[in-house]
Write a structure and sequence with these properties.
The structure is a homodimer of 312-residue chains. In chain A, helix 2 links the parallel strand 3 and strand 4. In chain A, 34% of the residues lie in helices and 25% in strands. In chain A, the strands form two sheets. A six-stranded mixed sheet of chain A has the order 7-9-6-10-8-11, with helices on both faces. A five-stranded mixed sheet of chain A has the order 1-2-5-3-4. Chain A contains ten helices and eleven strands. The interface between A and B is large, with 58 and 58 residues.
């Protein structure tokens, strides 16, 4: 739908993690927007209003990070039921403020309106010395991911089951990182900037799941990737949750959403430098870009590009 | 609530028609956001999806215009019921595209999500050589308005009554400008820039009604205004609608919302130049800013600052 619109002046319009509006004095201005809807992107039974406010900022920061940028300014528009107590609204804005301070974003305006569902709509600007798009990966580049995956999806599984399942409650207590990953989300700003400086050829955040988001890089770069599934780093507790659920860890790490780690295409000779620059955040090589399109495992098995809808 | 947030780097943060993010080479960068919610800001019984898309852009352009700026880039996030036919969504984006072309805005991204109500959230950037804030009006300045007022509110009255009132249907046909004013909204970009160049001391768009919006100028400027109510220009058909409804035209022109004309504070010696620069758009002097705070009529009667909620 966005492609119906006049993108006129923009250097890079809709279709990447963020648009590139213009370049001035060697700095590119970035812009992105994400809208979170109650019952679809968050559930007030599992997340506090302040978690929702924090996450609304973090997911936009993650889009700026995935371009190799740093966030600068944001606008936030909130739709909320007029029956909601003002303390909940204040808590939501306190979560926004906490994230804004954590990521160095100035919140310069927005709108507050009545609505049935809670809706949090954020637009964010950023700056990048060298924006990294989704379109630059080439056969022979290595596919790397920051941090560890599957944590947010595992956290959501547990939160949904906790009301009726004692084992889920135990796992939530044993692995507090999982519910935290689902509720708030991180954004890898420093890591994205390091990747841009080290010569990354393409980058995306894995907010919709590794398989789905990497497939966007492949479409726009015109290549494929072979993934060594055993190398995909799983967040602490993901294996235990997968076992409890009767699923495979790979389902969570490959297709679970809301992790906000970065998937990065890097020429082989740049990986060591980038690994050093990322420290203490881990960088893991999980595959190699190929001439043949699509995602395949090391043994040639194709992987579906779709994230699991029920994670969303 | 927005005042709880860190506004850090901004030259002018939340609280005006738009924020002023920074100044570069004599040009100030502006940013604003507005969210329209079905059933509150529009009604799909009275407005087509393409009207809604057009209006979502126009109301944000109007905020940029009220700073004396021109719009540059926008992001649009849409929440829509997944049962809505795709032709409706396409029509909405066609309305967005029509407004973007009319006002010279590049639409560089956004988000599309499922929601129960339809929500259209726009963030827009602009540029101004000399941003005109709400805070600069001084006693002795003249209060002027562009165009004519009350049309959008009169249009909404008629649209609401048309199902059961033949006279309302006749008035809608006789005065098509009224429903058009409600459905789409204008934005006075050229006029706002002319006002800035002519030395306007304060400016605001009258989206919430003249009385309410002028009261924001008064609060931030620390002065009052005496309005000559007989001089307020009424849109064509407003007198007839007021007579049909048993109300006064002044109720519509002073307190009706959604007109998106500009209210401008101008030093007396600049009014003639500005009137010439505005042409063919009319500029009408309707009052004088005073040391005494509040809004008063020429005979001293105070005017309530509130817009009429049922117009919204």
């Amino acid at each position: 739908l966005l492609e119906r619109l006049p993108q006129g002046r923009a250097v890079v319009g809709a279709g990447d993690d963020a648009a590139v509006l213009e370049e001035r004095n060697g700095v590119s201005v970035l812009a992105t927007a994400d809208m979170l809807v109650e019952g679809r992107h968050f559930d007030l039974a599992f997340s506090s209003p302040s978690d929702v406010g924090f996450k609304a900022i973090a997911v936009n920061v993650s889009d700026i990070a995935a371009m190799g940028g740093r966030p600068t300014f944001a606008l936030i528009s909130l739709g909320a039921n007029t029956a909601l107590p003002s303390s909940s609204l204040e808590a939501l804005y306190d979560g926004v403020a906490e994230a804004a301070r954590a990521f160095g974003v100035s919140i310069v305006g927005g709108d507050t309106v009545g609505s049935d569902e809670m809706i949090v709509s954020v637009a964010m600007l950023g700056e990048a010395a060298r924006p990294v798009l989704r379109s630059g990966a080439r056969a022979g580049d290595l596919l790397c991911v920051t941090g560890a995956l599957g944590g947010a999806a595992a956290g959501l599984w547990l939160l949904r089951a906790a009301g009726h399942d004692a084992r889920a409650r135990t796992l939530l207590q044993e692995h507090p990182n999982l519910s935290e990953a689902y509720r708030r989300g991180r954004a890898r700003v420093r890591e994205g900037q390091a990747a841009a400086a080290a010569g990354a050829t393409a980058m995306i955040d894995v907010s919709d799941g590794l398989a789905q988001d990497v497939s966007h890089v492949l479409e726009q770069s015109g290549c494929g990737v072979q993934i060594d599934i055993e190398r995909i780093p799983a967040a602490g507790g993901v294996a235990a949750v997968a076992e409890w659920f009767g699923a495979s860890s790979d389902d969570l790490t490959l297709q679970g959403g809301d992790d906000y780690e970065l998937a990065i295409a890097v020429p082989p000779d740049a990986v060591d430098d980038l690994t050093g620059a990322m420290s203490p955040t881990s960088l893991t090589v999980i595959g190699t870009f190929t001439e043949r399109t699509g995602i395949a495992l090391a043994d040639g098995t194709p992987v579906a590009a779709a994230g699991w809808d029920h994670f969303r």
